[in-house]
Write the structure tokens for this entry.
Amino acid sequence: MKRALLGFAYGFALVVSAMGGEIFGDPVKVEDASSRVMAVCVEGNRLYAGGGPDFYVFDISEPLKPKRLGHINGLAGVRQIAVRNGMAYVSAREAGLWIIDATDPARPRVRSRFDCCELATGVDVAGDVVFLGQRQNGVEFIDVSDPDHPAHIAMRKTDESQSVKYRNGYVYSGDWGSAKLTVFDARDMKNIRQVAYEDLWGFGDGVWLKGKYLYASTGHHARHRDLSKLPYKGVDSQELHLYGGAGPGAGCGHGLDIFDVSDPTHPRRVGRADYPPLYVRGLDMWTPRTSASSDLVFCAATHDGLFAVDCADPTNPKVVDRWTAPLASHPEWPSCCIGSVAVGNGCVYAGGMGCGLIVLPAKGAAQETFEQGPPPIHASYREPYLTDENEFRVWKPARPGQARAVAVAGDVVYAACGDAGLHVLQVKPEGGIEKIGELTGHPRVFDVQVDGTRLYTAEGLDGFGFYEMDTPTGFREIGRLPQIGPGNNLALCLWVADRNHLILSSRNGGCRLYDISDPTRPKDLFRFGTCPGWDKFLMDAPIGGGRYMAYNNAHKNILWIDLGAEPQPSLVTTTKYNFIGLENGICRFDENRALVTSGADYLFLAPNEGDPPDCSRWPRKPLPGPGSKLCGIPRKDPNGTRVVKTCRINREVALYDFADPENPVFLKRWKVSGNPDIATFWKGKVVIPCGHQGVLLQK
């Protein structure tokens, strides 16, 4: 076995480990890129790479010596890149979809940024349609015929879409936690439909096609597999025990699944290659790519490294080489995160979160042109998002955009509609809704809160705006925070803690508490939490004398903020054994209780309540009625006893009466066509920002 070590300033060494085949040569670090590269993509003699806020274009006419041609900064959170004819389509998680014109590679420029439904993760493009995987919300289909004005076509639900690939009218999605391969017939945008749903032998992510075979890279846990015949039974770790214990398939899902997709509607499993078991949370994504001149599949497997798999016999694929880049700070990990891989002539390009952009000479590697086949038709189609007029009145903005948030003040509803901006709506005496004004000068607004005569907005690249309202439609700016935290973070989410404190979030770096007693000079007090995605996990108002606010640090813990601490607010309690998951939330119930949802159950927490002394799980009670199985984030009517629960992921809303908190009564359940965000109340009626369906007012 040969080992080639190259030291760098970030505390790691690049390692080549040959496993019999000696496919990989000595690694070369590309110095003209940052140390954190998540995405790589090759088209012709151009290599495109990105990570964090950076996007690069390299000339690879000499494959082993990439030469940087162009660079732009400011994208935030680059995750994947798809390129067609020099136009790059970049998924950037919270920051959405970016379209970059790199036809002049020395001067790449942003043509547009599109507000997608949730976290933009997987991306592919064919003809005039971009396919954007967005976790549990599914795959979004976007018309990019005008790159300056991309437009939403439709959304189709999947379990947890992480990566997507299009060929010959079909879209293949690797679904993460459910360990599934989902296939859509996408030949006609007027008739997108799911046609296959198959088990993977690990959590799903990257998919790729060559000939009649589909290659699916997997990781983490083996969900749909008998492990009794394998030489390993799983891994164990403290983190796994915090998540309920290490099962027999824990960490055993890393590898490559091979399917025969001669008939895309009936994928047939033909083979599997396994990698060593591993469990490292956080950066966990997996990517396969094929070679034009051999049967090798090159697979980026994050902290497991980079693998070369010989698939000459697809029923018996063999791992023939592995390359890793160990981190001195985490010797228990085989490698820093290898986020993606692209195949060049005689080499592969690896993007690493720590080792940067790497060129690895590789025997049998040859660049290929992926043949997509005919693109979808009817890219100009727009999903109608129908509303049940017996249940709701609806308002939609004239410009394309999603109703993301609403705030109610008397009979006025302030609606943050993403790319369509902020609109002021009047609820008419007979119950209808009409527009009476809008915020000018800031075309994108993603969240809105009202506190008395003050209005607060999250305006994307324009930052957070603070306004005094002389009238319901008269906005006088009294403060602005253009940036929170390091990097180019978009203003996406906010909460009013009290008159003097705001909690702000870009969603990719947790939340920050600000003192706004002087709104012209907001003061950053502290940061808390991790990436909360598009879901809003902070309770809406404090309890316990206006002091305590709880935050659902999804899948990890519950945090409490003491707004009354001296000399300034602080984090006071963090649970270790209790958490409620990303589909659930917390709201103020009354002065001394927070209402918490947990799947089909609910519970109450006292101010600043943490884990029980015996480290047990909090007791939960089941919610009643046919809406009981619905997860979601709750909000209580401040003037009544009703509680509404909205679930963006499943497009469902449930309504309860909590007049008797120990015996709530189920009132209503709605299946809506849009993705509902946090609801509120107007005179006992539910008001729902429902994505592309618009703003809904219960009749």
